Every structure is written in structure tokens, then in C-alpha cells.
């Protein structure tokens, strides 16, 4: 169990750090949007993993709200960009 | 025995979800343009999150937890394709993709036809109004 958790932590860390790197040095705005989506999903997965390991359900609403937040942000940015570029 | 099985189940699912998240990060770093990065990034949004949510629901089973799990999965499964579609559409329209990497481009015909139609319509409208320059006619997509 401990080994599995360490491996999972390293993989989550790689995903989050790569997403942060892509947010900082993304060539375009859409790359940053995609990377921030990946970062939000990674955070949701870490919160859920902590709940599953420690056998409690206190942060399930946080997961729901994070999912809603990430989706609304990326959709609104993509829509705004499409309108800006089509003129 | 049951506790051991549940623990092994939890560990397996967490490791698979973490692997998906790490793979998405590596794909974000190494893939060349927006559309392929989008392909890499949408994997953990459904599969990894589904594994984690099922894991939470199994590790402490109650009616409220399962209802929350179904709500999270339903919401994410409904909205992740919408966001991916919007980002891909904005990438295509804004030329944020490398066209030399595309195998086939079935959308180019439709886009050029729509542009032609909208420009013809805006020309006709300008003729009707004797050259009243309004930008609203170009706003068809």
C-alpha cells in the first residue's frame, strides 16, 4: 500500500508539474486552457485518492465544484477566442 | 480478508488513475500542437476521474456517497466533451494547428463553403442598404 501510494504521488506530481510548465510556456492561449484543465483534473484526482485512502467523504463537494469550475472556465475562454479570431 | 481486498482495490485504482494523470502531463509536454495535446489531455478527465470516484464510492459505501459519485461522473461525462469540442473548434478556426501533421482534413470544405456563403450574403445585404457598413453581417458561424 505504501509503495503504491508513493508511486501514485510521483505520477500525480509529474502530471501537475508538466501542466504547470505548459501553462507558463504555452505557445498559444488554447494550450494554457488545456493545461489548466489537466491541472484541475489532477487536483480532483488527488483529493479523491486522499478520500479513498483515509475512508472519509468530507471533500466530495469540493470535487464537484472543481469540476464545474474548470469546465465553465475552459468553455468560456474557447468561445471568447473563437469570436475574437473570426473577425 | 475483506479489508485487505478493499485496500488492494483502492491501491490499484489510485495507481492507474495516477498513471493516466502522469501520461497526460507527459503528453502535454511532448506533443507538437493543440489538437494532439487535446487528445492527450482528455484521457484522465473521464477515465482517471471515473476510477477515483468509483474508488471513493467503494471504499465507504453509503447512499449519499454513491449519489455524489453518480453526480460527479454524470457532470464530468456531460461537460468534458463539450469543453474539448469548443477548444478544438477554436483551435481550428484560429489556425493554432499544424496542417502538415493532419492526415485528412474533412472540415476544410465545409468551412470554405460557409465563408463563401456568408461573404455572398453580406455583399447582397450591403447592396440592399446602399453600402451601409455594418459588421453584424459577418457574424455568422
TrEMBL record, chain A:
It is found in: Cell membrane. It comes from the Bacteria. InterPro entries: MrpF/PhaF-like. The chain crosses the membrane at residues 34-53, 60-82. Keywords: Cell membrane, Membrane, Transmembrane, Transmembrane helix, Transport. It is a multi-pass membrane protein. GO terms for molecular function: sodium:proton antiporter activity. It holds the Pfam family MrpF_PhaF. GO terms for cellular component: plasma membrane. Belongs to the CPA3 antiporters (TC 2.A.63) subunit F family. This is Sodium:proton antiporter. It comes from Labedella populi.
From TrEMBL, chain B:
This is Monovalent cation/H(+) antiporter subunit G. Belongs to the CPA3 antiporters (TC 2.A.63) subunit G family. Pfam families: PhaG_MnhG_YufB. Residues 110-141 are annotated as: Disordered. Residues 112-141 have a biased composition (Basic and acidic residues). Keywords: Membrane, Transmembrane, Transmembrane helix. The chain crosses the membrane at residues 47-75. InterPro entries: PhaG_MnhG_YufB. GO terms for molecular function: sodium:proton antiporter activity.
